[in-house]
Amino acid sequence: MARSPSRARSRRKVARIGVLSPFAASDGPAPSFQVFRDTLRELGHTEGETVSFEYRWAGGKYDRLPALAAELAQSKVDVIVSAWSTPAALAAKRATATIPVVFVGVGAAVGVELVTSLVRSGGHVTGSTFLSEETVGKLLQLLKEVVPRAARVAVSLQVVRLGIQGPAHKILKGAKAADLPVEQSSRFELVVNMKTARTLGVRIPDPVLLRADQVLE
Fold first, then answer.
1. Residue 144 belongs to what domain range?
2. Which of 170, 181, 163 lies closest to 119, judged by CA?
3. What is residue 68's predicted lDDT score, i.e. its pLDDT?
């Protein structure tokens, strides 16, 4: 007797992805998280059919992250995704020694001891990082060109696409986190907003303007 497609789908294992977010539910789990879900769907992981998401929200209370990470570990999800937060990634790592953890939005992944190496994580944690020591050095060098007397620095970064769908997809297909390299951003654009610079009273040196990929007037 031929097996009906509907019965085959009903018996298919649905992978459970736990999402640990420092944000509130009303904010969404992370910037551009929909890109992650859309890309997973393009890779064949359809929500409600082959994957489901279980969210834990800290609502801005970072001290709640360890308990929320423990909840996800105890519910035995197939993978935990930590969304745009180094404390969330660390909480997820400490909550389990067996469930794969995929992080995004972490700068110095080796420095905070999430992984032992970017080439091969060596444990149950992998993900994507957009900052390296070399990148930070270049950012600071650029800042010193623009504001030579700067002593204290605050950084605001916007990364348009998430880099977690690759590792998450591979883990759902059976790969081990320990064997996956931490993905790194390979291309950055220098965009200078002249209106903001004028508002702040900052003069942008000509060499910086010449190197800019885009100058916003």
1. 5-186
2. 181
3. 97
